[in-house]
Every structure is written in C-alpha cells, then in structure tokens.
Amino acid sequence: MLYTEVTPDQKRVHFREALASGKLLRVPGAFNPLSARLIEQKGFEGVYISGAVLSADLGLPDIGLTTLTEVAGRSQQIARMTNLPALVDADTGFGEPMNVARTVQTLEDAGVAGLHIEDQVNPKRCGHLDGKQVVDEETVLKRIRAAVQGRRDPNLVIMARTDIRAVEGVDAAIARAQAMVDAGADAIFPEAMRDLREFEAIRAAVDVPILANMTEFGKSDLFTTGQLADVGVNIVIYPVSLLRLAMGAAERGLDTITDTGSLNPLLGEMQHRSELYDLLDYSAYNAFDDNIFNFTLNPHAQDYQ
Predict the structure, then answer these.
(1) Is 3 a catalytic residue?
(2) Which burial class, exposed, middle or buried, applies to 268 when counting CB atoms under 10 A from its CB (0-12, 13-18, 19+)?
(3) Is 272 a known active-site residue?
(4) CB atoms within 10 A of CB 247
C-alpha cells in the first residue's frame, strides 16, 4: 500500500548483487509510476527512467530542455512506487563538475539505485539522432570523477555512457569506455552500437558491467535477450517502448471514437478495471480504512449538538 517498503539503500545493494550475478537484467522504461508497478508485476529485474520519455511526457523533444528538478521529481515518484531498483538517465549531469556532483546527490535522495552520465556536448540530444557532438576526454572524465566523488552511498551505481561511437567509430568507443572505467565508472553504457560484434568488443575491453539500449527505430538492431546474454551484456533497457506502445494504443482509440462513435471495438485491448484495481492494490487500502475507521455513529449524537 502507498509506497514500497524496500529502502533505497536496500535496492542499491540488491542492484549491485544482481549486476554481479552474471544474469542479464531486463530493465524496461517506466513512463509513469503506475507503469513501474506493472513492470514489477510482470517479473522484470529493474525499472529505467528515460530522459527521452520524460521530455516527451512534457511535450518536449529530447534535446536537453528538461531540468534536474524535473528529472529528480519524476525519479522519486517512480522509485518509491516499486520494489525494483531504478536506473535513471542523468544526461550530461546538468552542468559543470560541481553540478554533476549535486545531480548525483539529488538523484540519490530521490531513491534511485543507479544513474548514468554521458559524454555529449551540453545540451545533449537523443542518442539515436544524427549530428551528435561529444566533449573531449578530459571534460567527460571530470564529469565521471565528480559523480563518483559526489556519491554518498557507495552502492549507488555510477554508470558512464559514451556516444562517441556515432562520431568517431567503435575503436574510439572502446578507448573512451576504458578511460571512463579508470575514472571510477561502475558500468558502461555504449550508445548506438551497430551490431553484436561491437558489444563483444566493448565487453572484452572493460571489466565492469555493460548495458545495451534496445530502443526501437534507432541505430541498433533489436537483439534478443539471448543474443545479448551470449555476448556478455549485463543490462538491457527498453527506454521508450512502453510509452510508444501506450501512445500507439491511445492514437488507435481516438481514431476509433472518430470512426465508429464508440470504443466498443477496443474493449478487449484495454486493461480491465479489475486488473487496474489489482495493480493499485485497492484491497489493501480498503483493509487500511476498515482497521482505522471502524466506528459507528451514535444515533443520539444530535442530542449533544
């Protein structure tokens, strides 16, 4: 009922243990707190909080327009609603190294289990758009070191994302990933890899967990969990998938109203009221009310007024 009873500290420990287990962690993107609960109910291992989804939710493109306050607020709303560890997109850290350290502490307070900082020029853009620019190695390593230094809970996972593959090629991505690990990164997110061989090359180059981004309609092929596990990937995210599915369904629903005057044709595709109530745990709230508000009105109460 209400929020998770698993503390942020416990989730960070569990996330570390899961990363060390050798199993591939499947981490879909939650577009709101309710979808985070659904991800947990369906048996996934974590929840991802995407900067692209947050931007889209606000009606904005993913070009660095959101603020730390907006990201932290949504991160807290999602993280407190699920027992699963939450991994959040912290973009470029929202400023210079001191801002990066503040970003880490703010997101730590929001209850996330991990975050990633990237090497794009600030303001960044979606990792699967053309025309990206990355900062020089010295600048990004300052960001990573600031993130590590700003961390108060040593179990908070500081992941480093590099977008340099699309700019300078896979060899540059390997070199940058290695430098990021040397700077203290706990895991590596190599963005926009072209094929499994490139993931294998990153895996061979670093001794920390690596992440695969299986976003639709992007630069990477959509590999299966089995294929990714076989090349040593530790985490796979589906950052915008649930939002895309939900918006696609919403579009079809609105069109159906326009075309037929009713949503009767789509009732079978909707989450049933009973399923929603189960996900929201209505029964626990009813029990809570029964235990507290168990009085009856005195029939003579009006005599004392």
Answers:
(1) no
(2) exposed
(3) no
(4) 13
**How far, rounded to the nearest angstrom, does the alpha carbon of residue 146 sit from its chain's CA centroid?**
21
Catalytic residue among 40, 186, 191, 198: 191
171 flagged as catalytic: no
**133-157 burial, b if ≥16 CB within 10 A, otherwise e?**
ebbebeebbbbbbbbbebbeeebbb
Q: Which of 12, 40, 45, 126 is catalytic?
A: 126
Cα separation of 71 and 63, whole Å?
14
CB of 63 within 8 A of CB of 57? no
CATH 1.10.10.10 for domain 8-240: no
Q: pLDDT (tens digit, 9 = 90+) per residue, 104-155?
A: 999 999 999 999 999 999 766 665 556 679 999 999 999 999 999 999 999 9
Residue 240 and residue 246 in contact, taking contact as beta carbons nearer than 8 Å:
no
Domain boundaries, the chain: 8-240, 248-292
pTM: 0.92
Q: Residue 48 catalytic?
A: yes
Residues 6 or more apart in contact with residue 154 via CB below 8 angstroms: none
Measure the CA–CA gap between 156 and 151, rounded to whole angstroms: 7
Token reading at 204: 């061979």
Is 291 in the active site? no
Structure tokens at 136: 């020089």
